[in-house]
Please model this.
Amino acid sequence: MGARVMIEAAKERLGNSPEYYGVDFFEWGGGKPKILSKPGKEEIKRRLEKLGCKCYLYQGDSTKVLPKVLHLLPKMDFIHIDGEHDYKTVKSDWGHVSRLMKSDTVVVFDDYPMEGVKRVVEEIKRGGDFVVMIKGGHAVVTSKKGSGAV
Model:
Protein backbone atom coordinates (compact mmCIF):
# COMPACT_ATOMS: atom_id res chain seq x y z
CA MET A 1 0.00 0.00 0.00
CA GLY A 2 1.61 3.21 -1.14
CA ALA A 3 1.42 6.67 0.35
CA ARG A 4 -0.48 7.89 -2.72
CA VAL A 5 -3.32 5.40 -2.14
CA MET A 6 -3.52 6.33 1.56
CA ILE A 7 -3.63 10.06 0.80
CA GLU A 8 -6.26 9.69 -1.91
CA ALA A 9 -8.43 7.58 0.40
CA ALA A 10 -8.03 10.10 3.24
CA LYS A 11 -8.99 13.00 0.95
CA GLU A 12 -12.04 11.10 -0.25
CA ARG A 13 -13.14 10.21 3.30
CA LEU A 14 -12.23 13.45 5.07
CA GLY A 15 -12.82 15.89 2.24
CA ASN A 16 -9.86 18.04 3.18
CA SER A 17 -6.10 18.19 2.96
CA PRO A 18 -4.72 15.31 5.03
CA GLU A 19 -1.47 15.48 6.94
CA TYR A 20 1.12 12.82 6.17
CA TYR A 21 3.88 11.93 8.63
CA GLY A 22 6.57 9.52 7.51
CA VAL A 23 9.76 8.03 8.89
CA ASP A 24 12.06 6.36 6.38
CA PHE A 25 15.69 5.96 5.43
CA PHE A 26 14.70 7.41 2.01
CA GLU A 27 17.28 5.14 0.43
CA TRP A 28 17.42 1.41 -0.08
CA GLY A 29 18.90 -0.71 2.67
CA GLY A 30 19.09 1.83 5.47
CA GLY A 31 22.34 3.37 4.32
CA LYS A 32 23.80 0.20 2.81
CA PRO A 33 25.06 0.39 -0.78
CA LYS A 34 22.24 1.07 -3.26
CA ILE A 35 21.44 -1.55 -5.86
CA LEU A 36 18.39 0.25 -7.24
CA SER A 37 17.58 3.92 -7.14
CA LYS A 38 14.89 5.12 -4.74
CA PRO A 39 13.47 8.65 -4.65
CA GLY A 40 15.07 10.79 -1.96
CA LYS A 41 13.30 12.65 0.82
CA GLU A 42 12.82 15.89 -1.14
CA GLU A 43 11.41 14.06 -4.17
CA ILE A 44 8.98 12.09 -1.97
CA LYS A 45 7.89 15.32 -0.27
CA ARG A 46 7.32 16.99 -3.64
CA ARG A 47 5.23 14.06 -4.88
CA LEU A 48 3.11 13.92 -1.72
CA GLU A 49 2.47 17.67 -1.64
CA LYS A 50 1.44 17.49 -5.31
CA LEU A 51 -1.35 15.16 -4.12
CA GLY A 52 -2.60 17.96 -1.87
CA CYS A 53 -1.43 17.00 1.59
CA LYS A 54 0.69 18.57 4.26
CA CYS A 55 3.81 16.46 4.52
CA TYR A 56 6.20 15.94 7.43
CA LEU A 57 9.07 13.57 6.73
CA TYR A 58 11.71 12.34 9.17
CA GLN A 59 14.79 10.60 7.82
CA GLY A 60 16.53 7.76 9.60
CA ASP A 61 16.02 4.58 11.57
CA SER A 62 12.53 4.54 13.08
CA THR A 63 13.82 3.04 16.34
CA LYS A 64 15.98 6.14 16.79
CA VAL A 65 13.85 8.82 15.12
CA LEU A 66 10.44 8.05 16.67
CA PRO A 67 11.56 8.48 20.31
CA LYS A 68 12.97 11.90 19.40
CA VAL A 69 9.91 13.22 17.53
CA LEU A 70 7.02 11.46 19.27
CA HIS A 71 6.22 14.54 21.40
CA LEU A 72 5.87 16.60 18.20
CA LEU A 73 3.34 14.28 16.57
CA PRO A 74 -0.46 14.55 16.88
CA LYS A 75 -2.85 11.69 17.56
CA MET A 76 -3.36 9.91 14.26
CA ASP A 77 -6.35 8.59 12.31
CA PHE A 78 -4.33 6.06 10.34
CA ILE A 79 -0.88 4.56 10.92
CA HIS A 80 0.92 2.30 8.45
CA ILE A 81 3.88 0.29 9.73
CA ASP A 82 6.01 -0.92 6.84
CA GLY A 83 9.67 -0.80 7.70
CA GLU A 84 12.13 -3.40 8.83
CA HIS A 85 10.58 -6.79 9.53
CA ASP A 86 12.68 -8.00 12.44
CA TYR A 87 10.95 -8.44 15.79
CA LYS A 88 12.96 -5.77 17.64
CA THR A 89 12.20 -3.02 15.10
CA VAL A 90 8.51 -3.88 14.68
CA LYS A 91 8.07 -4.08 18.48
CA SER A 92 9.76 -0.68 18.87
CA ASP A 93 7.65 0.90 16.12
CA TRP A 94 4.45 -0.46 17.67
CA GLY A 95 5.47 0.73 21.14
CA HIS A 96 5.88 4.26 19.82
CA VAL A 97 2.99 4.57 17.38
CA SER A 98 0.48 2.95 19.73
CA ARG A 99 0.90 6.10 21.85
CA LEU A 100 -0.40 8.12 18.89
CA MET A 101 -3.71 6.23 18.72
CA LYS A 102 -7.17 7.61 19.38
CA SER A 103 -10.27 5.51 19.97
CA ASP A 104 -10.89 5.24 16.22
CA THR A 105 -7.32 4.95 14.91
CA VAL A 106 -6.54 2.21 12.42
CA VAL A 107 -3.02 0.74 12.39
CA VAL A 108 -1.98 -1.41 9.44
CA PHE A 109 1.07 -3.66 9.66
CA ASP A 110 2.39 -4.49 6.20
CA ASP A 111 3.98 -7.86 5.45
CA TYR A 112 2.14 -9.72 8.21
CA PRO A 113 3.48 -13.13 7.16
CA MET A 114 7.05 -12.02 7.96
CA GLU A 115 8.15 -13.60 11.24
CA GLY A 116 8.97 -10.42 13.20
CA VAL A 117 5.76 -8.68 12.14
CA LYS A 118 3.63 -11.75 12.84
CA ARG A 119 5.17 -12.21 16.30
CA VAL A 120 4.39 -8.61 17.35
CA VAL A 121 0.84 -8.80 15.97
CA GLU A 122 0.20 -12.08 17.78
CA GLU A 123 1.41 -10.45 21.04
CA ILE A 124 -0.99 -7.54 20.45
CA LYS A 125 -3.83 -10.00 19.85
CA ARG A 126 -3.03 -12.01 23.02
CA GLY A 127 -2.92 -8.80 25.08
CA GLY A 128 -6.65 -8.34 24.45
CA ASP A 129 -6.59 -4.53 24.36
CA PHE A 130 -7.03 -4.25 20.60
CA VAL A 131 -9.08 -5.77 17.80
CA VAL A 132 -6.81 -7.52 15.29
CA MET A 133 -7.93 -8.53 11.80
CA ILE A 134 -5.78 -10.25 9.21
CA LYS A 135 -6.47 -9.06 5.66
CA GLY A 136 -4.27 -10.73 3.08
CA GLY A 137 -0.68 -9.81 3.82
CA HIS A 138 -1.69 -7.12 6.31
CA ALA A 139 -2.70 -7.04 9.96
CA VAL A 140 -5.22 -4.33 10.87
CA VAL A 141 -5.28 -3.22 14.52
CA THR A 142 -7.92 -0.99 16.11
CA SER A 143 -8.89 -0.08 19.66
CA LYS A 144 -11.72 -2.08 21.17
CA LYS A 145 -15.09 -0.35 20.88
CA GLY A 146 -15.82 1.85 23.85
CA SER A 147 -12.25 1.72 25.09
CA GLY A 148 -11.69 5.45 24.56
CA ALA A 149 -8.36 6.92 23.54
CA VAL A 150 -5.30 4.80 23.97
User: Anything to note?
Assistant: The CA atoms of residues 113 and 137 lie 6 Å apart. The longest helix spans residues 115-127. The chain has two domains: 1-60, 75-150.
